[in-house]
Amino acid sequence: MAIKGVHAIRTGGVAVKRPFLTRQGGAVTSKLRILASHTFTPELPILCWLIEHEEGDFLIDAGMCEAAARPGSLDKSLGPFDAWLSHRICRFHVAPGEGLGPQLRQIRPNGAKGLRTVFTHLHSDHVDGLADLSERTFAVNAAEWQHPYGAPKRLLTGVRPQCFDLRPDPALPFGASFPLSRAGDLFAVPTPGHTPHHCSVILRRGGVTFFFAGDVVYNQEQLLRGELAGAHAQPEQAAATIDAIREFARREPCVFLPAHDPRSEARLNNLELLGP
């Protein structure tokens, strides 16, 4: 789908243990519930976002490449133990043609060439598509790069990101931001909780605000209910982030686009606003 030069790219899907989505109990209990559960969710989309921009196109997260769902691929990117743990709680599926590379070639004449990639955070299902990018350079919050949480370290070995430092911004409820475009219409804001240094990306275009939320929540209903996910690294920070997004949406209604929400593509297509 494309709305005002904004494309949702579904790079396969993932089913996760049900307790992964909703937190119950303390830090240890919540994680044990995930491991002990035998019930998986229906398949959730793995979305990334292409933004056509006069300064050059931007890619928000990279999703998955086709090879990422093949047997043994997680061992190569994560290492044996983290791959074993990932298999315990997640089931990835990327069909032929669903990887990032083939879809970029359908949307852009030059495919991945010339894209500027920005990561919300460094989990596998947001960065494995790097393998399909001809230029493996990307922008990421410096603190996320320096202190990654659950990142595929083998995949990122030898990669040199363009790290940015968030700047104080009292005009926003997030308290900080970083401009990604010279025009200032595209910028990153801190939304910690899922990882300690998770960021979201905001685009203002044609009177509409788009909020690319990464894994702040897994669906918009969680945001509206103030529901925390079981997989968050920092639940208290995640709760504060939810409050900040709600405050932002009260000031500036936005199209809210989490990466795994089955309704994100429809909200983009219909310009459905999250607001007061």
Automatic annotation (TrEMBL):
Instruction: Name the coiled-coil region(s).
Output: none
Q: Which SUPFAM superfamilies match?
A: Metallo-hydrolase/oxidoreductase (SSF56281)
Question: Keywords on this record?
Answer: Hydrolase, Metal-binding, Zinc
Q: Which InterPro entries match?
A: MBL_superfamily_lactonases (IPR051013), Metallo-B-lactamas (IPR001279), RibonucZ/Hydroxyglut_hydro (IPR036866)
UniProt key word Zinc: yes
What cofactors are annotated for this protein? Zn(2+)
User: Does the record's keyword annotation contain Translocase?
Assistant: no
Under the heading SMART domains, the entry gives: Lactamase_B
The chain positions of domain Metallo-beta-lactamase read: 45-260
Q: Name one Pfam family in it.
A: Lactamase_B
Question: What is a single molecular function from GO for this protein?
Answer: metal ion binding
Q: Which family does it belong to?
A: Belongs to the metallo-beta-lactamase superfamily.
The protein in question is named Metallo-beta-lactamase superfamily protein
Q: Which organism is it from?
A: Methylovirgula ligni
